[in-house]
Design goal:
Blueprint (H helix, E strand, L loop, with lengths): L3 H4 L11 E4 L7 E6 L4 E6 L5 E8 L13 H8 L11 H8 L3 E6 L4 E8 L3 H14 L4 H20 L2 H13 L13 H5 L3 H11 L5 E7 L3 H12 L22 E8 L4 E8 L10 H14 L5 H9 L3 E7 L8 E9 L5 H18 L3 H18 L3 H13 L6 H9 L4 H11 L5 E9 L4 H5 L7
Parallel strand pairs: 3-7, 8-12
Antiparallel strand pairs: 1-2, 2-3, 4-6, 4-7, 5-6, 9-11, 9-12, 10-11
Helix pairs in contact: 2-5, 2-8, 4-9, 10-16, 11-12, 12-16
Cofactor: Zn(2+)
Keywords: Signal
Pfam families: Peptidase_M16, Peptidase_M16_C
Length: about 450
């Protein structure tokens, strides 16, 4: 569990009637275009290998869903592989594989994205396929009924049969009152059981439009040529008015929330989550989110970070510990610490050790040498990430979906280098307090015997 900047891998002027391009002297290998139908195109040149990553990002994720239809964003992701008038169900993946490429898709709280990685001469072919299903998705009710069973089985295997996932699901549902972040991306089972093909079609018609999409292409490409091909395939799609997005501002929390989950597991687990601020678009000079990023790294940014060193190696109260914080996102954010208990240790002991480690930072701060080491590590990891063409496309797309520009990435990294130990200490003192805390505990239950398990095996269809 790491922060956004730690997790994600991080012009010329051209004008015509249907597109414009912006250029930045600091990043001459990145080019941004806007098509007349509202689609944004970002091209990152990287000529080190004859390959290209092609990604389409729709700014529609689980946070855009409404009660009773949770999980529909993820279900539609599945249905996008079920064919168009030109491409039969199941043929999309086969056609990408036939040109030596790999492809997949993923849904998050903030967006849904589709990608292909191919040899550069095959870019036109996968772009044609992706543009086709942006406008011409066509699946029947029978296809939907088969696929919704696959999604329900996915929920069973990845959530209901996974104690850590169950704990996180209950944590989010307890921490948030108003924000749609309280719903799981995969959806609640009852909503999946009652979902209809019409729900998926409505989602597609509402959100899968060029004016709600960003195409990111990274690799060994010529931006001028890419723009022409994108105009050819994506330019025909029509813009459409998007649904009104309600703000759904999360009410201020006024005290500790607690939830207990009983599930088969080998050991107890503890998760502690605090309400914290995030970085806002246009306000890149807000120091608190950067300080929280660095606090997460102080606690869990490397093998000998504070929590791992104290709780795992010295006190041996937990088997593992993780810290999570996303500085950029569309919705509200949590600063999360999660652990699983070591044999013979209790949740109360783990919570006490975590609180003690946090109090040490609140009372005494962190060393300047400690913070410098973390900053160097962040920069070095960023350099390594940019060795990956796909990683560059991921970083650009995820940043854009959160409401920022790819131009902000380096600004954020530079700003983080200016944060002081006193600022890290200040945010820990200000935000890691009980009034904004939610605690989730997994109470482990005995697992079924191997004999009874054999009669209850399930497999994804």
């Amino acid at each position: 569990m790491r922060s956004t900047l730690l997790r994600f891998s991080f012009y010329l002027m051209l004008c015509c009637q249907t597109a414009w391009a912006a250029s930045d002297a600091g990043t001459p290998n990145t080019h941004e275009f806007q098509l007349s139908n509202g689609l944004k195109l970002i091209v990152r040149e990287d000529h080190r290998a004859p390959t290209v990553a092609h990604m389409v990002w729709y700014r529609a994720g689980s946070m855009d869903e409404v009660n009773g239809r949770t999980g529909v964003a993820h279900v539609l992701e599945h249905m996008m592989f079920k064919g168009t008038d030109k491409v039969k169900s199941g043929e999309f993946s086969r056609m990408v594989a036939a040109v030596g490429g790999r492809e997949n898709a993923f849904t998050s709280r903030d967006y849904t994205a589709y990608f292909q990685q191919v040899e550069k001469s095959k870019l036109d072919e996968v772009m044609k396929l992706e543009a086709d299903r942006m406008s011409n998705l066509n699946f029947d009710d029978a296809e939907f009924l088969k696929e919704i069973q696959v999604v329900m089985e996915e929920r069973r295997l990845r959530t209901e049969d996974n104690p850590s996932s169950l704990l996180n699901e209950s944590l989010m549902a307890t921490a948030y009152m108003s924000s749609p972040y309280r719903h799981p991306v995969v959806g609640w089972m009852n909503d999946l059981e009652n979902m209809k093909a019409a729900d998926a079609r409505d989602w597609y018609r509402s959100w899968y439009k060029p004016n709600n999409a960003t195409v990111v292409i990274a690799g060994d490409v010529d931006p001028k040529v890419v723009l022409q091909v994108v105009e050819k395939y994506y330019g025909a799609a029509s813009a459409r008015e998007l649904p009104v997005r309600k703000p759904q501002v999360e009410p201020t929390q006024k005290g500790i929330k607690k939830v207990q989950v009983k599930a088969p597991a080998d050991s107890a687990q503890l998760a502690m989550a605090w309400k914290v601020p995030k970085l806002q678009p246009g306000k890149l000079d807000d120091d608190e989110p950067y300080a929280l990023e660095l606090l997460a790294a102080v606690l869990d940014g490397y093998d000998n970070a504070r929590l791992n060193r104290t709780l795992v190696k010295q006190e041996r109260v937990v088997n593992d510990v993780g810290v999570g914080y996303d500085m950029i996102s569309r919705g509200p954010e949590l600063f999360l610490i999660s652990t699983s208990m070591a044999k013979g240790k209790t949740v109360e002991q783990a919570e006490s050790s975590i609180r003690k480690a946090l109090k040490e930072i609140v009372d005494h701060g962190i060393l300047d040498s400690e913070l410098k080491r973390i900053k160097v590590r962040i920069l070095s990891e960023q350099i390594y990430k940019r060795d990956s063409i796909f990683g560059q496309a991921m970083e650009i797309g995820s940043t854009e979906m959160a409401g920022f520009s790819w131009r902000d990435i380096d600004v954020m990294l530079e700003r983080m280098q200016t944060i002081t130990p006193a600022q890290v200490q200040a945010v820990s003192k200000k935000y890691l307090v009980d009034k904004g805390l939610t605690i989730a505990v997994l109470d482990p239950q005995a697992r079924k015997s191997s004999e009874s398990k054999q009669g209850d095996n399930r497999a994804v269809k």
